[in-house]
Give the backbone structure.
Amino acid sequence: MDLYYTREDEEFRARVRAWLEANLPREKLETLEQQRAWHRAVYEAGFIGMGWPVEYGGRAARPMEQAIVGEEFARVNAPPTLNGLGIAIVGPTLIHHGTEAQKRRFLKPMLTADEIWCQLYSEPNAGSDLASLRTRAELVGDHFVINGQKVWTSGAHRADWGLMLARTDPDAPKHLGISCILVDMHAPGVEVRPLRQLSGSNEFSEVFFTDVRVPAEHLVGELNAGWQIAQTTLSYERGGNTLSRVSRQLALFHRLLQVASRLERDGRRAIDDPVVRQKLGQMYTEIEVLRYGSLRILSRLEKGIRPGPESSITKLYYSEMDKRHQELVLEILGPYGQLIEGAPSAYALQDGVAYGEPGSWAYGFAYSRAGTIYAGSSEIQKNILGERVLGLPKELRADRMQAHPATQAQAGGEGGA
Amino acid sequence: MDLYYTREDEEFRARVRAWLEANLPREKLETLEQQRAWHRAVYEAGFIGMGWPVEYGGRAARPMEQAIVGEEFARVNAPPTLNGLGIAIVGPTLIHHGTEAQKRRFLKPMLTADEIWCQLYSEPNAGSDLASLRTRAELVGDHFVINGQKVWTSGAHRADWGLMLARTDPDAPKHLGISCILVDMHAPGVEVRPLRQLSGSNEFSEVFFTDVRVPAEHLVGELNAGWQIAQTTLSYERGGNTLSRVSRQLALFHRLLQVASRLERDGRRAIDDPVVRQKLGQMYTEIEVLRYGSLRILSRLEKGIRPGPESSITKLYYSEMDKRHQELVLEILGPYGQLIEGAPSAYALQDGVAYGEPGSWAYGFAYSRAGTIYAGSSEIQKNILGERVLGLPKELRADRMQAHPATQAQAGGEGGA
Amino acid sequence: MDFEFSQDQMALRELARELLTERCTSAHVRAMMEDPAGYDPALYRQMGDMSLLGLAIPEQYGGSGLGMVEQAIVLEEMGRVAYPGPFVAGVVLAATGIQASGDEAAMARYLPCLATGELTMSFALLEDAIGWGPEVVAMRAVPAGDGFVLSGTKRFVPFGATADVILVVASTGDGPGDVSLFAVPRETPGLTVEPYGMFDLNAKTCALHFDAVRLPGDALIGDLNGGAAALDAVVQRGAVAACAEMLGCARKSLEMSVAYAKVRKQFGQPIGSFQAIKHKCAEMLEATENAHSATYYAAWALDAGAPDARLAVSVAKSFVNEAARKVCGEAIQVHGGIGFTWEYDLHLYFKRAKHLEPLWGDTAWHRERVLEEVLAGRVAGAAAGR
Amino acid sequence: MDFEFSQDQMALRELARELLTERCTSAHVRAMMEDPAGYDPALYRQMGDMSLLGLAIPEQYGGSGLGMVEQAIVLEEMGRVAYPGPFVAGVVLAATGIQASGDEAAMARYLPCLATGELTMSFALLEDAIGWGPEVVAMRAVPAGDGFVLSGTKRFVPFGATADVILVVASTGDGPGDVSLFAVPRETPGLTVEPYGMFDLNAKTCALHFDAVRLPGDALIGDLNGGAAALDAVVQRGAVAACAEMLGCARKSLEMSVAYAKVRKQFGQPIGSFQAIKHKCAEMLEATENAHSATYYAAWALDAGAPDARLAVSVAKSFVNEAARKVCGEAIQVHGGIGFTWEYDLHLYFKRAKHLEPLWGDTAWHRERVLEEVLAGRVAGAAAGR
């Protein structure tokens, strides 16, 4: 055990910090063009697609370097770069499963955000039970003809391309007969409708496909072998970079400390109230534990050990922790925590830097409710941990009983409600 | 709504208090004979079997009167009377399902505790899934011959009789083929072995039956119709008198307040520590809510509305609350809460009266862990609430799939783990 | 001992439910989010016509002379539909303040119009600091001629931007408890409104900036320096009103969750057949039923003047705060993605319950008060008589 | 950055596990409950022979010169079997006190025999009050001739009834922090032992009554009035030692629960196939793995003298307290009735974890300290450098 960063890591961190100091935008990035310019600057500095192989435009960077970049960017509340899902999920999928032609065609513009990607997985009746998706892709000659509906598509309104799961053999049992296809979001028959969340904002969309024609060469991997590919991409989604989450939680926490030092409650400053102090101590404790766990995962990644289903622990812990912490924030701030307009600046959520998206305490609170639902709900994560990590027997399920025996193993951890 | 006790109730309460003041033993009841004498005194005062019909020795008392007796006896930490299970569960079962001969033979000595009863239900492989019990009762001529093993039998070592569930038709599906039989615990072939709990004490026993002969007239109800009878008795167990629980929790709480007023923690009295005060406030709050809920049930009982499956709310709430509160007690008292020998009297659990069983904080803590397991675990209670009260669909279960369709409905809320 | 509603009370519940089902639809609630006033005055007046506003106002002032239990019954129904409007601000907070002040002239002046709905009122306590006693009041009412001058800012005034008259708590003496109540018409010169946007977009609140606002002598309600007791009464009833509304939010969220869990299928079966969902719903039911007991016990205790009334109020608010948070939050989890959408109604109840959680004492505040009441021996008679 | 154990550390774990599996069976642990000494001296000496006692003792005093990480590895194994014995009392608490005192004569005198196991020691801090700083010390050491006289009662002294020498914290000055350490042989006249029975029957503790106990001058360890820093070091290491042992209890409880849930059938299927049980086990796994990260980070931070070492210790103790409570408690629930029996081993771990929860700072105590460290800026370097 040695939990110090290496000298190399520290030097790299210093470089990232120096670059951020010199390059961080001082104004909010309003337009897509401004955002593209920021993205390109970050890319050219070598901080995007860092883990990709060099031959596809990546830097083959060590996991620790990637983590440090995530940590430092979150620390200063840097504006997000574009195409996060594309670079984190679609790119690696293509690198593993794509044809040489697909890689040459798609990877570079993905990295530079000249083409923006979305992920077309969930459907109204296929959420936790993703394998019951119904969107059809029928092979007609040298084209797929796609009909159906996707939902919870993040960033669909600005996406150029989408990575889709669609049913290509309706007669095969549920997990078979699914294929993975690259879809041009500008093709005729694609319609994107924004979906408004309870927070009032609309980060997600519904996408409707009506006789959308996609060339057959946009199939990824084998026909009807899409489910395995989806499992890989889901695990990209569940692995991921938790140090940047730690930084984000810490930024929130430190702002909360500032406000609690000013806000008076029951005749004293909130920060002097022992009950409030317990809550603050608990929050910091839980963030530190997330940090320790992240370092533990990173140190395994550095040794080339890829996280398996146990990475569900991080997703489960982080999302439930965030929900708990946002509740605590609102407990400490009382009605001030629920102001979305008109909040006195002494009590508002501001990250201390001018260039991030400040949002409000309430917005963070609202969003914490999504964290335990998307990218595999807490219930799904617990099924994965119970079945794949602890080896507990699968539950009896209606779809398993009717399904082909061969699909049972693949249904794996996707059980639950 | 009118939550005042009636004048009649208040007068009755005064009578109970006066009786207790005059009759409460001043010394610990060490021997069974002393306990029988106490039981008989309470019975003769009219406070035992109060709800039973007059023709069987009861008083046909109102539910509120029964509740007041429970409340007042618990309030002064009166020694328990004997035969609690018999009078609360076996007696009502016989009154509803027994033959006239059975009633005449068994009810009176049950009430006077001249004969003490136990309940022979659970088996090593039939806990939550009671219907999978295996103890056999084979009808041979005019006798049943019983072989098998029961477990978690409360008070078996001093019981004269037991109410048993046994399998009388091994070929019938699981919920059918079970009968309800009265068993003489002194009969040859009955062996009682005490079972020690994690608390170190042994309130429960295992009971082994080897070729035990029981006259056929000790069958209760129809042959193979025992499951329905068991369902009734289980609901007696789950209904019950919650006001006495409130009194017990309040007694514990008030002693905790006394100790917290003396115990110094981190440079001040525990009771002056705002964090401790939050815990105390929470505990009292939760006890009051139990009291309100109990009054609500009682007020329905007074109107003749028998509690249905929703009484699982009380069991679930009380047992989980007790577990939580015992944890809080130990948090507040630190190592003093874990002393079972040598505790300075200022910090020990003593109920302020000399005649109860004082026990220790740790004993109460240990026992709270059983509360969410016995008499239907919390998981079972949640199944009952989910399925029978809210009408949610039953889960898929292996035993349901193989079982005879007719048993499906009866399996009812006994699902879960 | 009777914990059930009377026939009259059940009829009242039915009346409120029918009115709100018809007039306070989800579409109406959503429309009111964008509306600067935030409520439908016609609906409010209709409540007056149906005697819903005057439930707890004495008969001699045009009300029904009933109490907190009846108000709670109506408020639970309002919680079920996330009703937006100045009901609590006026007929709970302001009316309680006026009644508790003992000022009969003020009662005669304000209560009858509150009962009909002709008049809307609000109650302004909070400034910068959070708290529910007179110690949070920094605003001074300085005597000037026959009247007073008020300067400063009141925050989180419910429906303060539209209320005709605002009952303001201001400091009038040197002791920390020396506060008085003032009835301030919103149109008074020097008083400006800064609307707030709250997480619950239907919970309209605002800051009121007082810039040397001059008030006549009869703006004083009750005795000079006698406002603390009235404030206390407002906090007690405000807390129980919040409980009742949160209870309605919880019950509606539970019902929607159970209904959804019965029909929504995943993995070939209704999600309600999975223990993860079934047990969640069972816990939601447990929390909701206990919240019911706590809310109505407290409401009854206030009406009856029971010795444990303050205790019961603090028990209820601290308990229902947590119960409603749990139930409304878990309802979203049971629903999954759809529960997180704007179009689905769940968030209306979730946000309303969250809005009410800190008001009139949050959980920690009331837990402390529970202990204070217990240590002072102000508990229910029989059960704790040792 | 390497969060994995080294080869040597894994070998150490293997060594400890083999020894304890063989020598510290459930039967042994149960036998020790009834034993007045409460441990097997031969097993303890064997640990000395295998260099397990001297892990954190410097090489010049006969130890291995390793640190808290290695001790934590052994203690986790001890937690897995609920090992009863004076390991923590001697080679964590007393040895840390002596080393932190800077008293080289004392080190030379005590550490080598602690490392071999020839000598057992304990540490006596608590009296009537609960707390982990010098403020709980009321016992005064009154100078008398060349030495001191001690009077009063120390409570909850671990394995104090059998320890050869007890390190006692006593007040020697007028300031609240003016405490000193004294090495007191248990056989000293005037010192009497009152054994306690604890919920964890294997956690032998006692009260030590000092009736004008006379000590020679060289009983003082370290500087007069210099004991506070040493006490602090003891609390830090005592807390991490408790974490490691609790972690072992949790891990064993989790393993037993998972194994049981795979084979125990109810309703015709293994109970582990029900979500109620499966999800519980998943949460237990989550808690256990996080407890592992927190424990070993803190142990490493102490060894490395990291700037956030105190923070890490308080993070670990407050987190592992709750994690172990949850895991060991839920294990009983997963098992149902059998988990509540005396014969089944689960309660050994449940009780040990509960025993350790309040010691060296309970959850609330350490949460407060977490915040103090954060407000003082004593946090990890990189991540919080703003």
Q: What stands out?
A: The first helix of chain B runs from residue 7 to 23. The two ends of chain B are 39 Å apart (CA to CA). The CA atoms of residues 9 and 15 of chain B lie 10 Å apart. Chain B touches chain D through 57 residues (CB under 8 Å).
